[in-house]
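for the writeup, i need someone to sanity check this before i put it in the appendix. the sequnce is what the collaborator sent (i think, or maybe the updated version? ugh). structure was predicted straight from it, no edits. if anything looks off just tell me and ill rerun, i have time this weekend
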Amino acid sequence: MPFAQAPSDDITLLVETFGDLAVLGPTIRRELKKFDPGAMIYSSTTLQHHMEQALFLDRVAVGLSTGLGVVGFLLTAAGLFGVGQYAVNRRTREIGVRVALGARPGEIQRMVLLESLRMAAWGIPIGLLALAATARAAQSQLPGVSALDPMTYAAGASAAVVIAVATAGLPAMRAARIDAMCALRSE
């Protein structure tokens, strides 16, 4: 609103300059004092510095969200890897019998990978439902992103499948190297 319509004791003045604020600051202050000798100038800063201060909390929130996302990713990968290793350990005898009956290493690897994908097939819908339930709260923090953005849901589901396959790789290779005689003798 124009100053004449809504006078205020607190005014913010924006000045566009093409020089260094350290050099131009005293000149701007001197000109303001000429205009109003009683004016008190509290601070002067660049727009860039002002925007950095204004967006600081948003940047911290983004950093924390990113960090939590990375931790969640690592925990998911570690959990799936651990479950895959456990499943191979638990089924060592069964895998030994399969190998003794003629199963090839590729078939054993495929079996372990499919088991990991089955776990992902259970986890993905549960995760997508949880995302849909909490997306409304996060929508206010993500301007321009819909709470039901299909690309976000597809990216999340794809990431879960990639994690499931990647973490099943080592247990699948370990299962494929199981020696039938050693597996049957060990139990």
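Residues 33 and 39 are 6 Å apart (CA to CA). The helical segments are 21-35, 47-54, 56-90, 92-100, 105-139, 150-176, 180-185.
thx in advance!!
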